[in-house]
Amino acid sequence: MDDERDLIAYNEPRVLGEVIPDRNADDPEYRKCSTCSAVLPADRLMVIKHRNAGQPKGHLRIYCPDHFARAEAARSASGPATRPPSRSRPLDDRVIDTTYDVQTDTPPGKDPDAHSDTLHRYHRALWSKTLPDGTRFDLADGRPGSYLDHESDHGRFWLTSDAVIPTFPHKAGDIVAKLGDGEFEEFHTLGYTIGGMMIWPGNKIGNKQTINGARGFHPRIADRFDLTVECVRRHYAGQSSPLSGVLGRYTDFFALFETFEGFIDHFLLHDLLDGGRVRFAMPFDEFDGPAVPQDLATYRRFMEASMEFIHARNARIAAYARTLQPRAFVEGEAGALSAGPG
Question: What InterPro entries does the entry give (predicted)?
Fold first, then answer.
């Protein structure tokens, strides 16, 4: 048998040293956790074969005991075994499928943030919620003039979608080219599940950049979500950051959630934090260093941390979606979604 992937069934955890004895070799590269790069004996590592659109035989991921426990917890929270994203699988209009690649229902050459009807529906259902002050933040379909709208005593807000996890195919193209078969495709596809998506105010103020635009163009942020959320944390704390100017222009939006914790709760971003602090996907040096990975090891660390966050957030979203009443997925009287008890 030439390919060790043939030895393992999909989504069935196995002890690495038992199913692939050759991994007990002295070379540490064969005994390394795919997430944290910890080198351990093969009989202490678990291996799971995941489906991947770019690899017909699947993609093997190796887990140390800690990250295997996290992966199993996320899988349990998601319910039954997840299905791979499919570009032909029909969606149940009542269900939020956290494995669904929103590029699937996007016309060729178009941006899912603007053109995926599924993503638009998911955003409306998930983020139409009760605010900390007890009032509702119900989102209405603003298209074609805008993406999503909210209007209440708090004011009027125009929201747009944003795929928040960059993969740097151009800024780190030379590094991406060194990845294994299908690795980049798996990362890229996962980023277009709902766990990799966010909404921000989309209206320009004073003809200046929006949050989406500013975080993408600022060289010390480079579209990274962990750095963006750190800037949001500092905004609530009254501290400066590379995005202070643009976040300050949208103070009314952030005031809806009252505190940084309220913002995190509303958008189910808890898995990006560790003890109230942002869990950075790369070493953080107060925004002084490059925001884009400069070598393969750093890119892998960034990729693995980002994927771990998306998987965990998808599990959290799936658990939250199961608490919503069926009415959360149908039109309200004013064209807004009523998102159950949330």
Answer: DUF6994
